[in-house]
Design goal:
Layout lengths: L16 H5 L16 E2 L10 H14 L9 H20 L8 E4 L2 H16 L5 E5 L8 H10 L2 E5 L9 H11 L3 E7 L11 H10 L3 E5 L11 H4 L3 E5 L10 E5 L1 H6 L10 E5 L2 E4 L13 H17 L1 H19 L5 E3 L11 E6 L4 H9 L3 E2 L1 E3 L4 H6 L5 E5 L6 H19 L10
The structure holds pyridoxal-5'-phosphate.
Pyridoxal-5'-phosphate binds next to helix 4.
């Protein structure tokens, strides 16, 4: 511990991360060099508890078969488990019907599906799509591609110094272009700034002008209760691997009437009712959007992950992460030259803390922390336009989850402080982040 750093009294949390860590095999391992692993890269991907691994192994070992195809009993068993997983995910997000829950490969695949299907069908030259400047590339590039195909226009709402969307700019845009705005696509929680956006209010604003609202919930679904019906959003997307589930799977929620009206995006097996040499007719929802063999075992693993998170309690997870964020803010702001990105107030954030330090490149910070077994992310975090608007090329991001502890946050702060002291004390010169 660096002697100039003041540590606040330990936080009391509603959940016990030390107890939860036991569920995660990888957290029992050590990092390179035998250091305890301090995993603070949960915004990129989380770890999995044993019960998720077991449920997937169980499927492969005992009842795996392709789904929806065979008449044999193995196929019936795996189809039942797969559809049960869909229902679990529908319940997890409080969807009205499991038909509205499409299994995709992840958030990126979900947004691309909407852009290709709903976008190509509905948008024309002169129409406008509104995004925020804090979007992940997954919620930018598919719309840029759509703009190239259709001639529609993208508008980015600027972010103020406190990490929030500039409300005046939003009002202005709404007043001037109510007729032209057809889609408002935004993240529920920024993967860089950590800002929690007012989803329900923004969805209402989109609906007031008859626009569609798409919510990127990649950084929200794993960390807080999601109530799709309260949000009233038209499309919601998220990824399994960011919520203790497997890679290669995610959810696209779509309002039933919209999904019914949309053409299928991918064509092939499973998404058809009938095929002739002349053409095809589409299957009903949700299969219409699930061409080919779906991620069967991944769906079962994701449902187990959703059950695990529900058992721990999403409100408790959210509260725990905000406490870790508060501690990180308190400790990191004691470091000379360190600037936090996003809201100063931890209650406005999820468990994401990004920062820059004058004279220190994020890659060097990350490499240095790695020597202490601490995994953080350095770079643009797939949000280059946001970094450009902040006039920085990169940042360091620590992102928390249910199994992170106050001691780990202290290790992070101590490690950064030691590096900062070493550099300002005449250590080797480093590249600048700005
Ligand atoms: C806010 C946000 N949107 C989209 C994505 C893309 O998710 P995936 O790579 O799982 O498709 C991420 C991943 O970091 C994210 O944080």
């Amino acid at each position: 511990m660096h002697n100039s750093m003041t540590f606040p009294t330990p936080l009391s949390t509603q959940l016990d991360p030390h107890q939860l860590r036991i569920d995660f095999p990888i957290l029992q391992t050590t990092a390179q060099g035998g250091m305890p692993l301090v995993y603070l890269d949960n915004g990129a991907s989380t770890q999995r508890p044993q019960m998720v691994l077991d449920s997937m192994n169980d499927c492969y070992s005992r009842y795996y078969s392709n789904v929806h195809r065979g008449i044999h009993s193995l196929s019936e068993t795996s189809t039942h488990a797969f559809e049960q997983a869909r229902q679990t995910l529908a319940d997890f997000i409080h969807a009205a019907s499991a038909k509205e829950v499409i299994f995709t490969a992840g958030t990126t695949a979900g947004i691309n599906t909407v852009a290709r299907s709903w976008g190509d069908q509905n948008l024309r030259s002169g129409d406008m799509i509104v995004l925020t400047m804090a979007e992940h590339h997954a919620n930018i590039v598919p719309w840029q591609q759509l703009a190239t195909r259709t001639g529609c226009e993208l508008v980015f709402l600027p972010i103020d110094r406190q990490g929030h969307v500039d409300a005046e700019q939003m009002d202005l845009l709404w007043q001037r272009h109510a007729e032209r705005i057809k889609l408002f696509a935004f993240t529920a929680v920024s993967n860089v700034l950590g800002t929690i956006n007012p989803v329900q209010r923004w969805v209402q604003r989109a609906h007031q002008i008859d626009a569609i609202a798409l919510v990127d919930a990649a950084q929200a679904a794993p960390h807080m209760t999601i109530d799709i019906q309260a949000w009233d959003a038209d499309f919601v997307v998220f990824s399994g691997h960011k919520m203790c589930g497997p890679t290669g799977i995610g959810i696209l929620y779509g309002r039933e009437a919209l999904l019914e009206a949309m053409p299928p995006f991918l064509g092939g097996g499973a998404m058809i009712r009938s095929v002739t040499t002349q053409g095809f007719t589409s299957a009903d929802l949700p299969e219409k959007f699930e061409a080919g063999t779906p991620p069967i075992v991944e769906a079962i693993g994701l449902a187990t992950a959703a059950n695990y998170l529900s058992q721990v309690g999403l409100p408790a997870i959210h509260a725990h992460e905000q406490q870790l964020t508060q501690l990180a803010h308190e400790l990191l702001t004691q470091i000379p030259g360190l600037r936090l990105l996003g809201p100063e107030e931890p209650t406005e954030k999820g468990g994401i803390v990004s920062f820059v330090i004058a004279g220190l490149h994020p890659h060097d910070i990350s490499q240095w922390l790695d020597m202490d077994g601490i995994a953080v992310r350095a770079g643009h975090h797939c949000a280059m336009p946001l970094h450009q608007s902040l006039e920085i090329s990169a940042s360091t991001r620590a992102s928390f989850y249910l199994y992170n502890t106050a001691e780990e946050i202290e290790k992070l702060a101590t490690g950064v402080q030691r590096l900062q002291t070493k550099v300002t004390g005449g250590g080797r010169r480093r590249r600048s982040a700005t």
